[in-house]
Amino acid sequence: MNNLDGWIIGNVREARAGGRLEQGIPFAIWQRQWDICDLSGNRARSRVIAENMSGLARRHPRYAVTDRLYNAKIHFYSGEYAKALELSQEALLLSRQDEDDPRLPDIYVQLSQSHQSLSNFEKALEYQAQAAGLYRSKGDQISLGNSLANSGLI
User: Fold this and answer.
1) Separation in Å, CA 70 to CA 3, 43, 73, 98, 134
2) What is the rounded average pLDDT of the residues 119-148?
3) Distance from C-alpha of 30 to C-alpha of 26, rounded to nearest angstrom
4) pLDDT digit string (tens) for 10-22?
5) How confident is the model at residue 126 (pLDDT cuts 50, 70, 90)?
6) Helix 43-59 vs helix 21-40: angle between axes, to the nearest 10 degrees?
7) Torsion of Cα atoms, 39 then 113 then 87 then 81, to 10°
8) Chain centroid to CA 103
9) How far apart are CA 136 and CA 26, in angstroms?
10) Residues near 94 by Cβ (< 8 Å), separated by ≥ 6?
11) Which of 61, 83, 111, 131 could in theory staple to 75 by disulfide, Cβ–Cβ 3.0 to 4.6 A?
12) How would you write the chain as a 3-class SS string?
């Protein structure tokens, strides 16, 4: 197996599930681009990637949770906190169809941030605690530390 094969199998859900690989490759590429743009603060490119994800999610509903989460972040970064909250709540509802959804802690963090920005501090703490609990149960010490620190800032 070469490096590309390993990356595809490691990052494209369809490759692991035996589904249609050609549907999963654009998603995996956009997801990695999103990660880079999000970390580097390239909000204009993040918005383009989120729009691409939305188009993909309309054709393939399995990407709807990530679509809602990415678009919630775009609206949050733009100061549109009510819309960010609405999209985060949609992501939460969709993710609950899969009890082991790995995005659930991130959704809780986004919900917390949106509530905090709307001055709903009790709800912000509640969601941050849920994220912390999931990070703790997964042994993700770095994310747990971030979540606890964010709770202190609320």
Assistant:
1) 28, 11, 5, 18, 20
2) 94
3) 6
4) 655 544 444 566 6
5) very high
6) 160
7) -100
8) 5
9) 32
10) 64, 65, 68
11) 83
12) CCHHHHHHHHHCHHHHHCCCHHHHHHHHHHHHHHHHHHHHCCHHHHHHHHHHHHHHHHHCHHHHHHHHHHHHHHHHHCCCHHHHHHHHHHHHHHHCCCCCCCCHHHHHHHHHHHHHHCCCHHHHHHHHHHHHHHHHHHCCHHHHHHHHHHHHHC
What whole-number distance in Å separates Cα of residue 93 and Cα of residue 45? 27
Tokens at 91, concatenated? 């992501």
